[in-house]
Design a protein that fits this description.
The protein has 440 residues and is α/β, with parallel strands linked by helices. It has 15 helices and 23 strands. Helices cover 37% and strands 22% of the residues. The strands form six sheets. It has a six-stranded antiparallel β-sheet with strand order 2-1-11-10-7-8. It is globular and about 75 Å long.
Amino acid sequence: MAREPDAITRKLQHGESGARFLVVFAPQQVPARHLLAIGKLVIGRAATCDIVVEHETISRQHAALHVTASGVEIEDLGSANGTSVAGNVVAKGTKVLVPLGTMIALGEVVALLRSGPNEDDDVESSRPGEIERVAATHLPVLIMGETGAGKEVVAETIVAKSPRKDAPFVRINCAALTETLFESEVFGHERGAFTSAERAKPGLLETADGGTVLLDEVGELPLAAQAKLLRVLESGEVTRVGAVASKRVNVRFLAATNRDLAAMVEMGTFRADLLYRLDGITVRVAPLRERTAEIPTLARQLLEAGCKVSGRKPPVLGDEAIARLVEYEWPGNVRELRRVMERVAALVPGATVDRSDLEPLLISAMRMSRPPPPPSTPSTSSLRDEVKSEVESIERARIEDALRRAAGNQTQAAKLLGISRRTLIDRIERFGLPRPRRGS
């Protein structure tokens, strides 16, 4: 059954079709809107507006979106708290073109213009020519897919085919960095910023200036780190730990994840505004079981690479062996196929690989790719560690807040916290916080 079009779709259906855009908002309770054809849409707090945004900083009739054949323009309708595009104020009655991926500020409400679902914003990585089109843009790219499906290979391909191919390409494993390490490694630090900072160190974002950064496993970032990353995406500036001045960086961001970030936004574990910033174009990497036509070629390539390491001539994959590879489910995706072909190169001595040669290797791979069962109840030690971590997080936040309120004066901050200055210094060193100036 066809879904009944909403009021905006009905309003625009009289116009010339073809332009397809999507405008998404933060806070998340304001629904995204598809702009399906040419027309004018008024945004405001009044119930009569085409897009109603109930927020105290939004005027009754705040702004208007003009969807044209060549793009989308925004006009401020005399709002009390203003409208801006990429930080530039839109004068009342003036129409300003909004490029795709650009942030729009309506009072304190943030909106992002993206291409609609029938355009480049959702790309299957296996479609010919699509990666080249994505690579040619300067938009951030969100690469989604199961573990081992080849997200990093897609990122490498985007970089290799992009205008930044000769510039630095920096990979950041978000799952491997704690909140404290994230700030120091990604933003860098000044000499003396904390106890072990014996010399100044540029962060990964600085070293990637002019190039591309891959945020691998971005869904694993703690919320505090997400907020700090968002500031970089919005301002294009990084501030080293312990520094006063910030530095501008020109970086294109790619982000990869096997998590459902939209569901994490609903759960409150991932920031909606960060998702909007990262999701300029979505590239979905299909699991290997849905790309069966690629399996024979991939298997031969991986087998050849495995044999090159051991210095032997690659055996031939027989027809029955190929059929078995194609019918297998590959829960570990390309990563699992690589491991199987490495085992073939090491363990199958003949010049031809048969189905019978593969069976024990696939059974072994299936056992390894099966995730361990979750524990029925957490152990006492894990509960203790979890509580300790929460307490330390609260204590760290209180110390940072006290130092801010005391303008960095350690003696005053210690009084606010009700502890001695020596204890405060010990906590600062334990948490790796920047050392403020000495109190009198």
